[in-house]
Amino acid sequence: ADKFDRGYERLIVVLGADHHGYEARVRGAVRALGHPDERFEVLFFQLVNLLRDGKPYKMGKRLGNLITIEEIVEEIDEAAQRKGTGTDALRYFYLSRRSDTTIDIDIELAKKASLDNPVFYLQMGYARLCSIERRAAEVFDLLTPAYSERLVQRVSHPDELAMLAQLGRFPAVVAEAAELREPHRLVFYLNELSQQFQSYFTRLKNEGDAILPLKAQMAVDGWEQRWDQEKTLGRLLWIKAIKTVYGAGLELLGITALERMEPLEDRTHDRDNEEAK
């Protein structure tokens, strides 16, 4: 009743999968208060499994090891040395699955600063985009330009065009996720966007056509004359578009968009992610 009094048009009640019997009672109470059925909605969530290093963490008063969600958040924050990391991690785990799917939350995995940690991977995608803009400004004195049709025409790599099409899907993905009450669709979208960009980023480096000149290229005399700066500016404009969509998606999920990330624990990924440090 309080929610309706505050101007909300729809009452969404979240219940555990073992509380189906409560739906009729709550619905009856809503009717008794004079609100129509179509303004009332129930979402049932499956149970959450708490894990440590992939093994079930069994809790109980008799075992004396009851752990609260506040303690989990604090433990993850302390491991990451950043307040908010625990909240980001739990939001990711809860939102990355359908409500009718059992959710596994591995505390040790959520504490890792590595690409094995799914929320770290998601945030790294945004940090990588920021790092490219930062390097362009600090090393090459290049700022992302204003929109220009001439520069847009220089964005012509097949991967770039494919990602532009992916960006165009963003409004529909958000609308669908909201309408169906399935925020995991947005998580999947952002993960796919991050994977696409990482593949593109690596491919261009291997082809000798990196977004920004590499140190090896800059060590050769005359590199500035060979550098296609206009294409670089077009790509910076393209990266800004990706960053805008990526940041908006993270904001909708309530996950922090980090512009810088701490060095990875897993050094095997360093070469591919050097610009995200």
Task: Walk me through this protein's architecture.
This protein has 277 residues and is mainly α. The chain has 3 domains: 2-45, no CATH class; 52-111, no CATH class; 118-276, Isoleucyl-tRNA Synthetase, Domain 1 (Orthogonal Bundle). Helix content is 55%, strand content 8%. The chain is built from 14 helices and 5 strands. The protein has helices spanning 2-5, 22-32, 69-80, 85-95, 107-111, 118-140, 149-152, 158-168, 170-179, 184-206, 215-218, 223-226, 229-253, 270-273; strands spanning 11-16, 40-45, 48-52, 55-56, 103-106. Strands 4-3-5 form a 3-stranded mixed sheet. The protein has a two-stranded parallel ribbon with strand order 1-2. Helix 9 packs antiparallel against helix 10 (184-206). The longest helix is centred in the C-terminal third of the chain and has 25 residues, at 229-253.
List the helices and strands and how they pair.
Blueprint: H1 2-5, E1 11-16, H2 22-32, E2 40-45, E3 48-52, E4 55-56, H3 69-80, H4 85-95, E5 103-106, H5 107-111, H6 118-140, H7 149-152, H8 158-168, H9 170-179, H10 184-206, H11 215-218, H12 223-226, H13 229-253, H14 270-273
* SS strand fraction: 5-15%
CATH topology of the largest domain: Isoleucyl-tRNA Synthetase, Domain 1
Computed over alpha carbons, the radius of gyration is 23 Å
- CATH-scheme architecture of the largest domain: Orthogonal Bundle
Percent helix:
40-55%
Number of strands: 5
- Mean pLDDT across all amino acids: 90
Our count of helices gives 14
Oligomer, anyone? single chain
**CATH homologous group name of the largest domain:** Isoleucyl-tRNA Synthetase, Domain 1
Order of helices and strands: HEHEEEHHEHHHHHHHHHH
Largest sheet: 3 strands, mixed
Going by helix content, strand content and strand pairing, the class is mainly alpha
Query: Distance between the terminal alpha carbons, to the nearest Å?
Result: 49 Å
CATH class of the largest domain: Mainly Alpha
Number of domains: 3
* Poorly predicted ranges: 265-277
Side-by-side strand order of the widest sheet: 4-3-5
Task: Give the overall form.
Answer: globular
